[in-house]
């Protein structure tokens, strides 16, 4: 039997809308939802078929038999696994209090389910991956604009100039936005790209600055200086909505383009020419504040400076600028119901909200729980449930993380794959893949808000379950079932849509429900008061929250250290055909890119006797990890750093394609678990140094035994 199902892609967390064709319970075709994406899809999205067909994933619940990480598993039924977890959670709650349990997830539109679970259990400790992703950018925006990183939509299509600092749009994909960048270029728009190496985005750019690693802040300060000196800012907008502009003017006095050029290794003339272009294009100039953001000690301030540049452009709430997302309320729609439970009034174990008051309390900061595990201050952490989150692949130094996690009595992984963390955990609950499961309905904000839903395209191949069922089953056993008021997904949909006038059948025509026909009009620019949720209600160049926390709002620039002789700074990024670490074993994507390489500057390589294609040995600063990989010798990378694609070097033996393929950047990031940004909250992932030498190992042996 043939059918066509509208759903939401799950091959990465961009969650593009898709249409899936299925015949006899087999996927025959996947494309982007033609109503929204013109059928476009990336390679990873197409490889969803291979994900379903892959046998090298957990096929039923597993309980650990041997030591942690030994790989000896007992196959158990779902009720046995639920009972096992519930029993242990109850004991931990009785012995140490409910707050000793942490639940981490990948955030996103379904997080209310995970938050409800952990809050109803009695713990405030919900967290997510973001301390290794967008937290610095998020906090930078929060401190300036009073809204987080999702507080603006970038109207790239209508912009005249997009400026990206390491926001590598054509490898680190978001299909809709990447297409918008192409549309903008087609219309004659300009793209300025800044990176320490040349990239897919850099080669399409109209201007490319190759900077010395870690000097973005200097370049942004030089740009601000020139823009202010030439009076190229929106005075009216600043007078009306911005505080601290005078302090900014005095602060940037010393940071001239000539100074910035020296610091970054670019030409002063090029910075000035760039500003000439900005003068022509403003206000339709967007400075992308970064997503993952290359992360050095001062990247929070670099991102803050990029947000400030947007404010100077006066590009907020204009076409081709930064648009405030419109929600259900703007369409006169009262919204859908989501699972909910108030957060228990207990201090968070990571210190966010009481020790660190300037951070967003929502998901806190995952890496700060390690301290609590080690010191039992403010209280012991005894269990960790990782739902679609792989702490060992996501945070630096898994070798050290294991020491801390060993203080826990229960580690649970809810995952579609064997994650590195899952392989070390006590229980693996295999979630059905996104093509084999339904998810709750979600509201997508934007210029055209809509309701969207992921629908099951085919029956699960193995004994796996959807998240909504896993959490309901666990909740029932923990006596918090009332927070999950449904038995089937249909009942959940009905409950979510109650009172809206819509039914789940209304999603069948296009896969989503549009809450408005036309894009909602922009807000009146004279009436933006109330949109900036800072303590003063203004865009705060001098942030009262930062100042209260004893942190400067405008931090004097400090030049990054040069790596010592024989060492390189390790930088990382994405490939267009992989998602972090979880597609490395995908049979189709593995074929496209089976291993990563080490990019190294041609002159630096020559000094070490390394030629393109040679095998090189890359070793962590404290020698805790070393891997062998092919060198990609190129002039298009700064000589102070080497670069690799994140996600490789996996060590789960049951993943035969990914096992020891390539090197792991996070395992090379020795010592970085405590190297985090006090202002931005995120881990300084780019502060890792590595040794590189030509390998004397047998290049034909990929797996070092
Ligand atoms: N060294 C280094 N560290 C990094 C990065 C880097 O480039 N270098 N990148 C950082 C960034 S930007 C991010 S966002 C994080 C990402 O960090 P994570 O979110 O932890 O990584 P992922 O590999 O995307 O996915 C986590 C887990 O989710 C599982 N998963 C995938 N789909 C599903 C599903 O449908 N259901 C369930 N239950 N599980 C699923 C995967 O199998 C995987 O084990 O890593 C960060 N850490
Ligand atoms: N194909 C694919 N697309 C993805 C993802 C994926 O896994 N695969 N993940 C998604 C996620 S979760 C995220 S967070 C985004 C991340 O997407 P982006 O934020 O665009 O970032 P990265 O891919 O992490 O790329 C980081 C870039 O920073 C550069 N860099 C290093 N040091 C410096 C420096 O000092 N200055 C500057 N200017 N650049 C520097 C690196 O060379 C690299 O090119 O991608 C998303 N899209
Ligand atoms: S960017 Fe690709 S993998 Fe990610 S959701 Fe979209 S189609 Fe899927
Ligand atoms: Mo990310």
Automatic annotation (TrEMBL):
It holds the Pfam family Molybdopterin. Gene3D superfamilies: 2.40.40.20, 3.40.50.740, ADC-like domains (2.20.25.90), Dimethylsulfoxide Reductase, domain 2 (3.40.228.10). Keywords: 4Fe-4S, Iron, Iron-sulfur, Metal-binding, Molybdenum, Oxidoreductase, Signal. GO terms for molecular function: 4 iron, 4 sulfur cluster binding; metal ion binding; molybdopterin cofactor binding; oxidoreductase activity. Residues 2-56 form the 4Fe-4S Mo/W bis-MGD-type domain. InterPro entries: Asp_de-COase-like_dom_sf, MoPterin_dinucl-bd_dom, Mopterin_OxRdtase, Mopterin_OxRdtase_4Fe-4S_dom, MopterinOxRdtase_cofactor_BS, Prok_Mopterin_Oxidored. SMART domains: Molybdop_Fe4S4. Belongs to the prokaryotic molybdopterin-containing oxidoreductase family. This is Thiosulfate reductase. It comes from Desulfolithobacter dissulfuricans.
